[in-house]
Amino acid sequence: MLKFYNTLTRKKEVFKPISEDEVTFYHCGPTVYWTQHIGNMRGVVMNDLIVRTLEYLGYKVKLARNYTDVGHLTSDEDEGEDKLEKGAKREGKTPQQIADKYLKIFERDVTALNTRPADIKPRATDNIKEIIGMIRILLDKGYAYQTDLAIYFTVLKAKDYTKLSGQNLAKNIAEAGKGEASDPDKKNPADFALWFFKTGKHKNAMQTWESPWGKGFPGWHIECSAMAKKYLGDTVDIHMGGIEHAPVHHTNEIAQSEAANGVKFVNYWLHNEHLLANDVKMAKSAGTAYSLAEVKAKKYEPLALRYFFLSAHYRSKQNFSWEALAAAAASLKKMQNKIRELKETVKLSAEKIEATGINEHYRGQFIAAIEDDNNIPQALAVLWETLKDDKLTADETLATVFDFDSVLGLELTKVKLDKTAVPKKIQALIDNRQKFRDVGDFAEADKIREKIEQLGYEIKDTPNGVVVNK
Ligand code: AMP
Ligand code: ZN
């Protein structure tokens, strides 16, 4: 039975999708104003492992991951400047050029990390009509009000506003209301903006649209609510994002969506913990925001980083260091070598790796791990145990670990045979033949030569020793 820890109920729950045909999954995507660091990448890989787990267990998944390209304000610096504008000013480009640039880098990096692409990749700026539609409903239903500066959602009207994080609203006010706390007409400091007008401190906003209430741009939270509704429906099976989103962004998404749609917004809320560096959250401000390009520049393959991510549970913090990455890279290399060795054996015995050869004992253990709130570190341990079990035939081992790898995504099927290397078995025969030659027993040496040839290898004696060809 597949179980997930649901942030909303604070317990592990059996997963039951709304429809048996398809699981709807919304993942809060990147704000595309800068290169995402490997902490951001951890969130995407954690999401990918859950999606792959669902697919492995037979569910069809419809995954939507948005790009935020307007409305996400820097709340703790510059007093709420739009992040895209900040990027545009920094690089002398338009916000859309910035979005295009960083969206491509993001896609390149998550592809290198072998994450399954999202089925739907909506940009907020392509969904302004839907956002305005939702704000209109909220105004009509009395959940929103307008001031000279913005349109706000009134949190006191939301049913059980703090249910997701259980936060103390009084404590949260500063954060939730920071965007427009300076608006004297705001009724409650915790009310959050749905639409900012092109006035006041946003009078020079670079990206604005007409709306029935005046020119402006959307708040960040309403974007996800509108896109989730448009692409996945009023109620979504799973919604995932970084843990810091629970008390503000996701709390606000629930309030808006449930007020506008009149039904439960999300059945399962999943949150991943952060990647740390020096024991604090990896972040640009901490000077630790390493990019995947830096990882590659240090000669680590992106899959080594993926392997590193597999070693910690998504709800645990994980501490990054270059030493830890080096250890992960070494483990991955060891795994690849083991696969290579097994592939040689399979080739020599001319057997085919067949899906029917999956070892059910280990498969059972693997499924138990991934069904238990996506316990990937445990699943990885089962894969290692399978690889090391020499009671299994090479075919069975390979078929089983390749099956597991459809969840773990380490591209084990792509491990190439080393064409220049002579398989151990052949080398042993060559060494043996040489011993007979050394004592002048050419008849015995020729018999071994024949055996080597039967295995598909040709040997030539040269002044420099034996040359082997395939
Ligand atoms: P942002 O571009 O700032 O909106 O962040 C994009 C995503 O990256 C969000 O879902 C954050 O939760 C996530 N994120 C940011 N920093 C980290 C970190 N150090 N570890 C894991 N996820 C992070
Ligand atoms: Zn979101």
Automatic annotation (TrEMBL):
Location relative to the cell? Cytoplasm
Catalytic activity from the UniProt record: tRNA(Cys) + L-cysteine + ATP = L-cysteinyl-tRNA(Cys) + AMP + diphosphate
> What GO MF annotations does this protein's record show?
ATP binding; cysteine-tRNA ligase activity; zinc ion binding
What EC identifiers does the entry list? 6.1.1.16
> GO biological process annotations for this chain's record?
cysteinyl-tRNA aminoacylation
- In the UniProt record, does the keyword Nuclease occur? no
Alphabetized UniProt keyword annotations: Aminoacyl-tRNA synthetase, ATP-binding, Coiled coil, Cytoplasm, Ligase, Metal-binding, Nucleotide-binding, Protein biosynthesis, Zinc
Q: Where is this motif: 'HIGH' region?
A: 30-40
Give the compositionally biased regions (Basic and acidic residues): 83-93
Which cofactors are named for this entry?
Zn(2+)
Residues holding ATP: K284
Record's keyword annotation contains Nucleotide-binding: yes
Using the record's annotation, list all stretches that form the tRNA synthetases class I catalytic domain. 15-328
Intervals of motif 'KMSKS' region: 281-285
Which spans of this chain does the record mark as coiled coil?
325-352
Q: Could you tell me which residues belong to the region Disordered?
A: 74-94
Q: Give the record's family classification.
A: Belongs to the class-I aminoacyl-tRNA synthetase family.
**Subunit arrangement?**
Monomer.
| Family matches, as PANTHER family | CYSTEINE--TRNA LIGASE, CYTOPLASMIC, CYSTEINYL-TRNA SYNTHETASE
What this protein is called in its record is Cysteine--tRNA ligase
Species, as recorded: Candidatus Falkowbacteria bacterium RIFCSPLOWO2_02_FULL_45_15
Q: Which gene encodes it?
A: cysS
